[in-house]
Write a structure and sequence with these properties.
- By secondary structure, the protein is an alpha/beta fold.
- It folds into two domains: 152 residues, Aspartate Aminotransferase, domain 1, CATH 3.90.1150; 253 residues, Aspartate Aminotransferase, domain 2.
- Strand 13 and strand 14 form a beta hairpin.
- Helix 5 packs parallel to helix 11 and helix 13 packs across helix 14.
- The longest helix is centred in the C-terminal third of the chain and has 23 residues.
- The relative contact order is 0.15.
- Its EC number is 2.6.1.76.
- It is an enzyme of class 2 (transferase).
Length: 421
């Protein structure tokens, strides 16, 4: 560990909860350099929905590299980009009746968000973006301005403006679904809210605590956006690519965002890739007006196209994810019932689930105990009050049950509740 302590910045975080050196990874398992296996219920923060080193995707990647195929191409045309765009059109857009154009904004999710915000402001001529309590959209300045977490915002070092925060679904004990609060602000010239360019929302807030918006709330939000001429941006970076069941997390609500941001599992293999999907009429960019060096990650195009055709040509993965999500919900509900005194309850949708605790420090203690037992589990929420489950969608039922058993054992060891006399 000495080299990490001596040379790596203090900003590192995940390694502090998992103080081992990882070496190999296959499927739903990672292995430290001693060979000890760890069942992965984090999946690269949702970047590995199809598991580690999926053999079909690995074969595509190796063939691409062995063939001396172009790796870096800026935004020049390439055969890999052509094939990826064809897969996006054939597998994702056309079957869903979506008429989006695809922008390659850079390698990471924050690049997709920055492009979305910038385009919304350019198209509408307005500056303000509405975001929501406990939302998370990235660590660059524009994305931080629409992020709720005070610790992350504090790292900016400068004021974060041109954004307004509104309550997410159920933030005020269910009193916000009809959006009278937002309409009142938009219609009152004395509210202090400039007419917004756009609204940005996660359908399930990952970093914010696995808070799932209802389908009705999302439809109400879309209605307000249409009524007042605001663009609707759905940040599907962590909850897209099938995490909640359907490929896009907004499909269940029956809404059609103006702009969608994707990253994490869109490459299928954990390689950096991000997309900003924009309705055709919104594509008002001038050539080169928004650019970057790493917009042509061709190995990621190759694995991304293969992932779409392998996993999304039919409904099998969606059905499997919903079934496994129901299993996780049932088991977590049983665990939560055992720790009602600690305020335990279950959140989430599909295979994005959280075991939340009102007892301070309980979720972090559960994650620490789980690591000791060979399970990688992270926390989320403003106070790290949620033990967050993001297992690969391809995790077997047997491994899901094993991981849930470990969570149950860890909670019994870590959570303090009054014992019967």
């Amino acid at each position: 560990m000495e080299i990490f302590d001596r040379l790596e910045s203090e900003v590192r975080s995940y390694c502090r909860g998992w103080p081992v050196v990882f070496n190999e990874a296959r499927g739903s398992y990672v292995y430290d350099e001693s060979g000890r296996p760890y069942l992965d219920f984090f999946a690269g923060a949702g970047s590995l929905n199809y598991g580690h080193n999926h053999p079909e995707l690995k074969s595509v990647l190796l063939d691409y590299l062995i063939g001396d195929s172009i790796v870096h191409s800026l935004d020049a045309y390439s055969t890999a980009k052509r094939d990826f765009l064809q897969a996006v059109g054939d597998v994702l857009l056309e079957p869903r009746g979506l008429d989006y154009k695809v922008q390659f904004p850079g390698p990471a999710g924050n690049n997709a968000v920055e492009a979305a915000l910038k385009l919304a402001r350019k198209y509408t001529g307005r500056e303000t973006i509405i975001s929501f309590t406990n939302g998370f959209h990235g660590m660059t300045l524009g994305a931080l301005a629409v992020t709720g977490n005070s610790m992350k915002r504090g790292g900016a070092g400068v004021p974060l403006g041109h954004a307004a925060t509104m309550p997410f679904d159920n933030y005020m004990d269910g009193q916000t679904p009809d959006f009278l609060w937002l309409r009142s602000l938009l219609e009152d010239s004395g509210s202090g809210l400039d007419k917004p360019a756009a609204v940005i929302v996660e359908t399930v807030q990952g970093e914010g605590g696995i808070n799932a918006a209802s389908a009705g709330w999302l439809r109400g939000l879309e209605e307000v956006c249409r009524e007042y001429g605001m663009l609707l941006i759905v940040d599907d970076i962590q909850m897209g690519c099938g995490r909640t069941g359907p490929f896009f997390s907004f499909e269940e609500a029956g809404i059609t965002p103006d702009i969608v941001t994707l990253s994490k599992s869109i490459s299928g293999y954990g390689l950096p890739l991000a997309l900003t999907l924009i309705k055709r009429e919104l594509d008002v960019w001038e050539p080169g007006e928004h650019n970057g060096t790493f917009r042509g990650p061709n190995p990621a195009f190759a694995t991304g196209a293969a992932a779409l055709r392998t996993f999304w040509a039919d409904k099998d993965l969606e059905r499997s994810t919903l079934d496994k999500g129901a299993l996780i919900e049932r088991r977590l509900t049983e665990i939560a019932g055992e720790f009602a005194e600690a305020g335990a309850h279950v959140r989430g949708r599909g295979m994005a689930r959280g075991l939340a605790f009102e007892q301070e420090g309980a979720a972090k203690a559960v994650a620490a105990e789980a690591f000791k037992r060979g399970l990688l589990l992270e926390t989320s929420g403003p106070e790290d009050e949620v033990a967050k489950l993001l297992p690969p969608l391809t995790t077997t039922v047997e491994d899901l049950e094993r991981g849930l058993d470990i969570i149950s054992e860890s909670a019994r060891s870590a959570v303090k509740i009054a014992q019967p006399a």
